[in-house]
Amino acid sequence: MSQSDHLIADITQKAILEYQGKVLITTGNGEPWELPGGRIHYQEQPIDGLKREVMEELGIQIEPLTVYGVDVFTSKSGNHHFMVFYLCQPLTDAKEIKFVDGEVTDMRWVDETELEDIDMRPQYKDILRRFFQSRD
Description:
Number of domains: 1
CATH architecture: Alpha-Beta Complex
CATH superfamily: Nucleoside Triphosphate Pyrophosphohydrolase
Radius of gyration: 15 Å
Low-confidence stretches: none
Oligomer: single chain
Order of helices and strands: EEEHEEEH
């Protein structure tokens, strides 16, 4: 197997945060909707990276409970992204969420019935459908 046969990708971690039967999604600067989170830093532990990203974006502390799923996508730039989705428990009241670093400019809590009408990567919709269906 040659090096070109291997996936070279950054690692993106996303938090599934539920509140009153809905999941938090975010957007920034006209980008499609997504789950909160981001890429881990070099030599950063994955859990620490997810906690840092959510704190930077939303100003809240979370506790990642378990890995819920993984997926891969290729962005318009041609970069590959390996995504890890965690079920997370917010340690801060959901009403205290605020936009901290300017990367996130809007957020909303959505349920399964709203997914089809949201501009969001199919990988996010798939993981959220699975999440909501597991709650039924």
